[in-house]
Amino acid sequence: MSLWDFLYTTICKGKYLKMNCVDLLLKLISYKTITPNEDGSYKFIEEYLEGFEVVRYDVQEVKNIFLTKKFSDDNIHLCFAGHIDVVPAGDGWSYDAFVPRIENDRIFGRGAQDMKSGVAAFITAVKDAAYFKGRLSILLTSDEEGDAIDGTIKMLQHLKEINLLPQFCIVAEPTCDKIFGDLIKVGRRGSINGKITIKGRQGHAAYPEKSINPVHDIAPILASIAGANLDDGDDYFAPSKLVITDIRAGMEVTNVTPGELKMMFNVRNSTKTDIDKIKTFIENKIGKLDYTLELSQSAKPFVTKTESKLIQVLGKCIEDTCGIKPQYSTAGGTSDARFVAQFGIEVAEFGVINDTIHAPNESTTIDEIEKLYTIFTKVIKNFNNT
């Protein structure tokens, strides 16, 4: 029996004692929540947040949970969202990745940054809230590090069906860069994957006139495609760039010209570029060649305007706590915030520094987790005053 379970069953008599955010983070790290296993953590969270309404919505192996408390009849609903799942520990750890450890004011363990620190901070802040003019809630999934098809998006669809969608949401992913408090993610670029297949006619290298070499056909055009900006960007996004990730043709011999060339690419797109725009761009560049184009969008871009209530309140609370004015960013990969935005919810991402996520000896600092809790507490307190 672990120390946590001993305290729960013997000393606490089935009632969890009040934890601070650091204690809670240590507890959460101890659960081996490798996607899609929540490892019993939801039962603990559900019991810890006694008095909250609980909505569970599981899809196959993925577990999703929504905990909410209505403080008044006012039509304001603020949600904190995140994922309890983590990537496997992998090699290179100095100790057990799922036995939390504190050294030199750093907390070590898988998920310490991504993102059990954020989960611990907002659970503590919501539990401590004495009053809110409206409704507070917490949304957790066990599928963010996996395929992300049965997690947050499915829970949001269910919440829409039962009329519990929030208006505002903070996703506590690790977002800060160099100094805690320096960045808020106000949006994310989308991601469009593409594959171009150019047809030729295989032949002998000694008789190039009798073949159609797709490598030769694409060569004079390639420079105008590779790294091309598809738009000019804007105040929130850098230009959408076509990044070639793979080109292959032939049979790895020197005397046969290839009959086909395949080229793969990715576009991290802003709101100014979509699949239709990419189709038109490719058609204008290689339309005279015999080719096929396959495009798929794995994530759509979104942005929450910086003048929105959510960004203004969160930014002010960060500045008051950290003494610095956060910058606004849409850089980086995808997160579950993209699903939240699809439902018309104002969403922002803010959490601890991102420098050891998915790495051996993943860690965060006590100072960061405590300040994150303070910021979320201030957001809850000040949200009704803006």
Descriptive report:
Its cofactor is Zn(2+). One of its GO terms (biological process) is lysine biosynthetic process via diaminopimelate. Its EC number is 3.5.1.18. The chain has ten helices and 19 strands. It has 386 residues and is an alpha+beta fold. The protein has a six-stranded mixed beta sheet with strand order 1-2-6-3-7-18, sandwiched between helices. It is elongated.
What is the N-to-C order of secondary-structure elements (H for helix, E for strand)? Answer: HHHEEEEEHEHEEEEEHEEEHEEHEHEEH
Structural class: alpha+beta
User: In total, how many beta strands?
Assistant: 19
Q: What spatial order of strands do you see in the largest sheet?
A: 1-2-6-3-7-18
Q: From the alpha-carbon coordinates, what is the Rg to the nearest angstrom?
A: 25 Å
Fraction of helical residues: 25-40%
Q: For the record, what is the CATH homologous superfamily label of the largest domain? A: Zn peptidases
Low-confidence stretches: 6-14
InterPro entries: ArgE/DapE_CS, Bact_exopeptidase_dim_dom, DapE_proteobac, Peptidase_M20, Peptidase_M20_dimer, Peptidase_M20A
Family: Belongs to the peptidase M20A family. DapE subfamily.
Pathway: Amino-acid biosynthesis; L-lysine biosynthesis via DAP pathway; LL-2,6-diaminopimelate from (S)-tetrahydrodipicolinate (succinylase route): step 3/3
Protein name: Succinyl-diaminopimelate desuccinylase
What's the gist of this structure?
The protein has 386 residues and is an alpha+beta fold. The chain has helices at 3-11, 21-29, 41-48, 116-128, 152-161, 214-225, 275-286, 309-322, 337-342, 366-382, and strands at 53-56, 64-70, 77-83, 101-103, 106-108, 135-141, 168-171, 183-185, 187-188, 191-199, 203-204, 242-249, 256-257, 260-267, 291-299, 302-303, 327-329, 346-349, 363-365.
